[in-house]
Amino acid sequence: MFKGQKNEPEKARRPRAEQPADKKPKTKKTEGKKKEPYDLKYLTGLLMAKMAFGGAKRLRSNADKVNRLNVFPVPDGDTGDNMRMTIESGIAAIENLDTDDLAEVMRVFSHGMLLGARGNSGVILSQFFAGIAKGFEGAVKADPYTLGRALQLGVKQAYASVMTPTEGTILTVAREAVEYAVDAITPQTTIRSFFADLVGEMHESLERTPEALAVLKEAGVVDSGGAGLLYIMEGFNKVLNGEDDQDDDGKTADVPKPKAPAASSFGPDSRMEYGYCTELLIQLMRDKTDVESFDVDALREFLSGVGNSIVAFKTDSIVKIHVHTFTPEVVLAHCREFGEFITVKIENMSVQHTGLDDGEEPPAPVERKKYGVVAVTNGPGIRDMFIEMGTDFVIEGGQTNNPSTNDFIEAFKKVNAGTIFVFPNNGNIFMAAQQAANFYADARVIVIPSKDIGTGYVALTSADLSGDDPDAIAEEMKAAMQNVTSGYVSPAVRDADMDGVRINKGDTIGIIGKKIVLSDPDKGCAAYRLAVKLLEEPDKFMLTVFRGSGTTEEEQDVLRRCLEENCPSAEVYFVDGGQDIYPYIFVAE
Predict the structure, then answer these.
(1) How confident is the model at residue 366 (pLDDT cuts 50, 70, 90)?
(2) Which label site among 18, 139, 269, 495 has the fewest CB atoms less than 10 Å from its CB?
């Protein structure tokens, strides 16, 4: 039990099930090629790797089903793809790993997932497995009790990764299933029976999500993130039961594998000329220091005595450090005096300098800027506009194409600045951007909570990057976003009744914030009606309209004339955005 949860009556043992996450339980067993089942008292590293491959395979086969579990009837469901690419990044990390050490397998697997995490569901999934990896630290193998404690840590870390956890989501499905499986552990429990209990309860919990979250009930779907997690655990279970998933289409994600360091370039006769690039993420601990008044300046002074290229700053109770030093062990020992490590990265810079391919030149040094800007955009017109407004690096992405944590980290590396402002411009990208900011130690990264292109556009136009206080600049941008209302139109992909609006498949719906406000058989009429609704809001007189790739100039001209005739006091600006999915995006100020 986690702190704050109420004790519940003991639950009756539920039947073990292996049916798809989007359907009610069936009595007929899923057929598959039988192998020798694993009925073990211990989970080893090699078995964990096999289960991870099985989980990824099972989710890959069903990613489209998860995508379709979309609350809004619009063609932007991407939860299945985000979770699939997240776990397959973990698979790529362990593909060539040759060890039976459970702690090492989980460490590498979870780190790969953290870097490859996409979308909010992918980030939560990666944090769930990162917590499990913490629970396995120091464990060459794990019995059911150790497994249960590790999964509890996974649930705890997944909840902690979300600013405001919502029940009826992947978090609930993970928590209730883990609670049930842990409560069911006896001296006779095996790894196989533990996961059978886990998956059985996970089915039950997923079916209950619409009762916990009204928006799911109204849409007539279960939680998509919870369904994705269930498919992964079903894949684990199939491996333990000796079954092959016959639904797999054989496709694999194109996941880049990390480049191996050129260790051969640094041999027994080499000189250590450049020292170690040392990056730390430290959780300050109250039993070691005063967290609230921790002196970062004193830390910087210490680091300047043992190295150079120093970056050190504190965000809440987390301290990030980057230093080039010949004595990383001294840095580690000093930092342990006031906290515990979340991540540690130490790289031999002599290897980095000598590990270039023949004829390859090291990148030319670029003068470090005070401030840099990274933004995520979708559509060539929107991308060009953000560049014109001063964005240093644009990440191509958006709905159904969410960038990973590592995509952000690589962008930060290209922006040589002391402070980097990030505009995710999509609510489903914010968590990956924040996770990347937490990992990156070579600059201070401030993620502006722009939930759509409109708020990001207005925030960036209001940015005054001449000031000395980055926090004040960020607050000004956030304040500017408060005066913005965004809306968009989209084709409806299914019949629905939502927010009091009757929707027929093929209609065009208008959405403001997270609420469907209209549905119309005609795309142009829907766009006009939505624009008028936005301009009717108090103090809104300026409207920026981003035209998508599926809308013609003729359709735009008709909309322009209608707004000029019927809203003569409004200032309306059109931008050829070229974005996918949404024919029009509106920004009202």
Answers:
(1) low
(2) 269
Task: Give the chain's largest Cα–Cα span.
Answer: 80
Which of the residue ranges 159-168, 176-185, 360-369 has the most confident prediction, judged by mean pLDDT? 176-185
SS3 of residue 46 by DSSP: helix
The DSSP string of 510-571 is: EEETTEEEEEESSHHHHHHHHHHHHHTSTT--EEEEEE-TT--HHHHHHHHHHHHHH-TT-E
What is the C-alpha separation between 535 and 541, in angstroms, rounded? 6
Helical H segments across 40-165, by residue range: 45-67, 79-94, 102-116, 119-135, 144-160
Chain segment 69-101, per-residue pLDDT in tens:
988 787 778 899 999 999 999 999 999 899 999
User: CA 306 to CA 508: how far, in whole Å?
Assistant: 62
Report CA-CA distances (Å) from 521 to 490, 491, 507, 524, 579: 11, 9, 4, 9, 22
Q: What angle do CA 204, 206, 209 make, to 5 degrees?
A: 115
Write down the pTM of the prediction. 0.75
Residue 443: count of CB within 10 angstroms of its CB: 23
Residue 346 has a pLDDT of 84
Tokens of 320: 């990030």
- Which domains does the chain show, CATH number per domain? 43-240 (1.25.40.340), 274-349 (3.30.70.1150), 369-481 (3.40.50.510), 485-588 (3.30.1180)
| Side-by-side strand order, sheet with 369-377 | 393-396, 369-377, 417-423, 444-447
- Rounded Cα gap, residues 425 and 397, in angstroms: 10
